[in-house]
Design goal:
It contains ten helices and eleven strands. With about 250 residues, the protein is α/β, with parallel strands linked by helices.
Length: about 250
Amino acid sequence: MTIFYFSATGNSLYVAKEIGGTLYSIPQCSKNKESVFEDDAIGFVFPCYGFGIPNLVKHFIEHGKFKAAYFFAVTTYGNTPGNCMEYTKRAAQKAGFSFDYCRNILMIDNYLPVFRIEQQLEKEPQKNIPQNLKQIVSDIHARKKQDIHKGLGTSVMSSVIQSVASLRKGDVDKRFWVNDNCTKCGTCRKVCPKGNISIAEKPVYHHQCDFCLACINFCPQKAIQLKGQKSGERFSNPHIKTAEIIAANNQFKD
């Protein structure tokens, strides 16, 4: 079994590791221009962004060549998945395959413009993450089939939000600013899946941002700030080490 994953702050990587199999980072596959894959089962695990699918995941699926007897997709989300899975299924159709199993899993939401990390952590027991993840793992290993269908209201709302998001340029990173706690350690540069950050006196953003928030959540000094953030706290999945996200996302040779 092969799993392709994208994870900015560790939730999706944690899910992928729990499912098992051979794991491949989508940012690294894209960097190395790998696009042809075959296995008995192939899965995709990634977060829902703005009711939709992350751009780099969408591009990877649409331009890849995948061959398997069983395909599955699992998306992580913190509030509502919107129509993310529908967009994922459309990407698969463009690549010439369809999913046998689709599932969303509720996790901690670390979208700082909207949510307070402290409140999200308080709500964690209510999200039933271990139980839901155990069921997903069991389903996939049993090669069960399951689809997700959303109502018209969700589809319309997702379409509107995605249309607005499509107008947003990569310079959304202008919302970040860096205080004097910065030590120029370079962690932000290494966890960025777009190679969008360089280090001078402080991190410099080059306006190719997908707003994954890996940089701000993994900054060890909490030096990176966000205009309009709801929380000064940061979140990364406790089961995942910073080094694992660097290995998965780093677009540079170091």
